[in-house]
């Protein structure tokens, strides 16, 4: 074996349920030290410290503050942008640096304390955390939402993802109630995995019927979407095989990144070539498996990104995976049950997968999703070295459908959702409408139309759209 072959040798996770809990910097330090201990690596030997963007707090110098806490000065430091794919991009870059001989070791960590932030807000207090950035930097988007999406108030994932779900529902010919029941059957087994996971946020097994509770972004219910307000942290340590040998890390505690790939759909939901499916997912999976020299049938365990059901379904459609496959769709319990700590989840799924592959040799697939089903990572991990790493160059970029900012006339619904407030009442409808020259966003505000939208399939239906100077308003 090449002595530069990268391997994952350290893992750590923490979940804090008592609020208020520690700040993100405390969590970073805790899991960083634990992962380094697991790797038998003195923290002073770290060549690289990389941190996934935290939504909880904007620090003045996140990586520098953690390095200071750890008492080390790594020559390579990275703080990521916002994205559910960020952990795999950092891991992939660290592995590439090790394979190229540029690094001997790297720590990748992330933490959120959003449950604690919520506890302080409810108490009418500000979080008393350290080293706040001043001035506060802009939010870490790689690319801000389209002006038309912002004008229509359509930028929250809980509203964009169900639009794609309704498009897929219509495309495969599912009735409204059948889609809901099928979704609950797919996700109920995930709750059982979470119940057995000591790091899961919601450790309660639930039946399909129990998952069909109040709506948030119709047709999604509160119990079938990612739970964001959690206090969780994770870290992994990667090293060259040469350093792992020097540290005395046993072979059965080394896990290898056999191959991974990154692909992109369009950044705007309305611009997607097909709202209910993804060629980018298929391309990322195909490239990752090819680089790993393995296929779906070779996987002993799977963790498919599960912020919303459409992410699971598009992945299953693209790679030919039965959503009820006996291997299961998750090793953690998924984002709605294990926890969805903003951009950080893939660190948790990777750490959990690594622990599983240490305990039982084999191969595992870990996927990631960023933004509005825009960005996709597929990574094949194994107890056996081999394959070729791959990288972050997209293996697929989607062709955009033009987004028409202002439109008046007749259009055809391509996908839609109904936003529900905290009390459960329907508040506003969001539509993506096929119009001459592309697609347009539109809103629906009349109560009787919102009720009808939840009872009858709107996808494929013609609606009237009128531009009022600010937004497009749909009616029928």
Question: What's the arrangement of secondary structure elements?
Answer:
Layout: E1 6-15, H1 24-39, E2 48-51, H2 62-70, E3 76-79, H3 86-99, E4 105-113, H4 114-122, H5 147-151, H6 157-172, H7 176-195, E5 217-218, E6 231-240, H8 241-247, E7 256-264, H9 279-292, E8 301-303, H10 309-319, H11 345-359, E9 363-370, E10 375-382, E11 409-420, E12 426-435, E13 438-444, H12 447-455, E14 462-467, E15 472-475
Helix pairs in contact: 1-2, 9-10
Q: What percent of residues are in strands? A: 15-25%
Overall 3D geometry? globular
Computed CA radius of gyration, to the nearest angstrom: 22 Å
Query: What would the average pLDDT be, to the nearest integer?
Result: 97
Helix content class: 25-40%
Q: Specify the structural class.
A: alpha+beta
Order of helices and strands: EHEHEHEHHHHEEHEHEHHEEEEEHEE
Q: Tell me the major beta sheet.
A: 6 strands, antiparallel
Q: Report, as a whole number of angstroms, the end-to-end distance.
A: 66 Å
């Amino acid at each position: 074996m090449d002595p530069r072959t990268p391997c994952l040798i350290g893992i750590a996770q923490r979940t804090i349920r008592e609020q208020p809990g520690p700040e993100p910097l405390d969590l970073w330090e805790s899991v960083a030290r634990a992962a380094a201990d697991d790797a038998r690596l003195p923290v002073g030997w770290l060549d690289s410290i990389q941190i996934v963007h935290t939504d909880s707090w904007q620090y003045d110098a996140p990586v520098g503050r953690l390095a200071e806490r750890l008492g080390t000065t790594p020559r390579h430091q990275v703080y990521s942008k916002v994205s559910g794919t960020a952990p795999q991009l950092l891991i992939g870059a660290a592995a590439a640096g090790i394979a190229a001989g540029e690094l001997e070791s790297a720590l990748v960590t992330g933490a959120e304390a959003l449950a604690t932030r919520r506890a302080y807000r409810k108490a009418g207090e500000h979080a008393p955390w350290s080293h706040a950035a001043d001035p506060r930097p802009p939010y870490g988007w790689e690319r801000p939402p389209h002006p038309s999406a912002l004008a229509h108030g359509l930028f929250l994932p809980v509203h964009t993802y169900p639009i794609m779900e309704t498009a897929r529902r219509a495309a495969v010919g599912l009735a409204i109630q059948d889609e809901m029941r099928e979704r609950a059957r797919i996700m109920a087994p995930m709750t059982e995995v979470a119940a057995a996971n000591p790091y899961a946020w919601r450790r309660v097994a639930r039946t399909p019927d129990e998952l069909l509770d109040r709506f948030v972004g119709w047709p999604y219910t509160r119990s079938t979407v990612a739970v964001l307000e959690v206090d969780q942290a994770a870290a992994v340590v990667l090293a060259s095989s040469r350093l792992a040998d020097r540290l005395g890390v046993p072979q059965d505690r080394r896990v290898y990144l056999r191959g991974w790939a990154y692909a992109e759909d369009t950044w705007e939901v309305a611009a997607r070539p097909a709202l209910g499916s993804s060629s980018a997912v298929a391309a990322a999976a195909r490239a990752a498996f090819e680089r790993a020299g393995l296929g779906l049938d070779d996987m002993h365990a799977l963790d498919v990104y599960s912020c919303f059901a459409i992410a699971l379904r598009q992945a299953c459609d693209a790679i030919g995976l039965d959503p009820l496959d006996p291997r299961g769709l998750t090793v953690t319990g998924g984002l709605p049950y294990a926890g969805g700590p903003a951009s950080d989840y893939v660190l948790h799924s990777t750490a959990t997968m690594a622990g599983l592959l240490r305990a039982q040799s084999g191969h595992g697939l870990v996927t990631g999703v960023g933004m509005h089903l825009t960005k996709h990572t597929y990574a094949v991990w194994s107890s056996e070295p081999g394959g070729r790493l791959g990288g972050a160059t997209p293996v697929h970029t989607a062709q955009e459908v033009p987004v028409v900012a202002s439109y008046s006339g007749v259009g055809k619904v391509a996908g839609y959702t109904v936003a529900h407030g905290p009390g459960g009442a329907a508040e506003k409808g969001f539509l993506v409408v096929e119009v001459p020259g592309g697609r347009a966003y539109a809103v629906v505000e009349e109560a009787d139309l919102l009720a009808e939208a939840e009872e009858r399939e709107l996808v494929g239906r013609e609606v009237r759209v009128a531009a009022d100077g600010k937004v497009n308003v749909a009616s029928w």
